[in-house]
């Protein structure tokens, strides 16, 4: 248990130098002060998967634009491989129907034009009790006591793939649009707007008649 895996990861990175091909992930069975998007509280009870990870990159060629979208895409691929039909709520949530299954917060640490390492915090509702707006995988599958180790390893593989396949921009954008939910508009936009697509930069395009907007994800 800890207050936040992000805090623990930050402490670790201050004391240790990440070497290439040696990522680090910190898990907690329960967080008391988890923080989600826009500083909102990240409810993290026992039974879920809560982790923060850092992956050393040390490259000027890493595509920063599609990093968040690639995580969403590979998470959806992971679930579809188990016949679990999920959707991307752009930019960083995975929904089952109208309920949140996974949330993630990506971040890139840079020095000039070089990406030093990628960071991510991920929360997945596995066996835990969720708020009304969430759903756990155990409820979706109607199975109790799903393996935390198994699903944790699957998530780490997603993070790894998002790094290794970073150059496959066309595949990632195409796949992300295939999984994109057009139900959930970004905050501040009413139903007169509609979601069009994720563009080649990983941004979301929305429109209202002849009005079009491109919304960038914040890393």
Notable traits:
219 residues; alpha+beta; 6-stranded antiparallel β-sheet; 3-stranded antiparallel β-sheet; 5 helices
Could you explain the architecture of this structure?
The chain has 219 residues and is of the alpha+beta class. 26% of the residues lie in helices and 28% in strands. It contains 5 helices and 9 strands; from the N terminus they run H-E-E-H-E-E-E-E-H-H-H-E-E-E. The protein has helices at 5-15, 67-80, 137-141, 148-164, 169-179, and strands spanning 24-28, 49-59, 87-89, 93-96, 99-111, 114-124, 194-198, 204-208, 211-215. The protein has a 6-stranded antiparallel beta sheet with strand order 1-2-6-5-4-3, sandwiched between helices. It has a 3-stranded antiparallel beta sheet with strand order 7-8-9. Strand 7 and strand 8 form a beta hairpin. Helix 2 packs across helix 4 and helix 2 (67-80) packs across helix 5. The protein is globular, with a radius of gyration of 17 Å.
Order of helices and strands: HEEHEEEEHHHEEE
Question: How many DSSP helices?
Answer: 5
Widest sheet: strand ordering: 1-2-6-5-4-3
Strand content: 25-35%
Tell me the radius of gyration.
17 Å
Structural class: alpha+beta
Q: Quote the distance from N terminus to C terminus.
A: 27 Å
Mean pLDDT: 93
The best one-word shape is globular
Query: Main β-sheet: number of strands, strand sense, barrel status?
Result: 6 strands, antiparallel
| Poorly predicted parts | none
Helical amount among residues, as a percent range? 25-40%
Q: Care to count the β-strands? A: 9
């Amino acid at each position: 248990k800890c207050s936040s895996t992000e805090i623990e990861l930050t402490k670790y990175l201050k004391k240790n130098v990440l070497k290439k091909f040696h990522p680090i992930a910190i898990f907690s069975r329960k967080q008391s002060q988890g923080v989600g998007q826009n500083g909102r509280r990240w409810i993290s009870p026992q039974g879920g998967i809560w982790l923060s990870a850092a992956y050393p990159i040390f490259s000027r060629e890493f595509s920063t634009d599609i990093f968040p979208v690639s995580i969403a895409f590979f998470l959806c691929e992971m679930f579809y491989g188990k016949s679990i039909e999920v959707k991307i709520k752009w930019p960083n949530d995975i929904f089952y129907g109208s309920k949140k299954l996974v949330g993630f917060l990506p971040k890139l640490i840079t020095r000039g034009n070089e990406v030093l390492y990628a960071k991510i915090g991920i929360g997945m509702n596995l066996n835990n009790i969720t708020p009304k707006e969430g759903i756990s995988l155990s409820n979706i599958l109607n199975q109790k006591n799903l393996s935390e180790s198994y699903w944790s390893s699957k998530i780490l593989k997603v993070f790894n793939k998002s790094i290794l396949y970073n150059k496959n921009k066309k595949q990632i954008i195409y796949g992300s649009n295939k999984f994109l939910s057009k139900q959930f508009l970004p905050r501040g936009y009413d139903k007169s707007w509609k979601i069009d697509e994720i563009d080649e930069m990983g941004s979301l395009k929305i429109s209202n008649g002849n009005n079009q907007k491109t919304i960038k994800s914040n890393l």
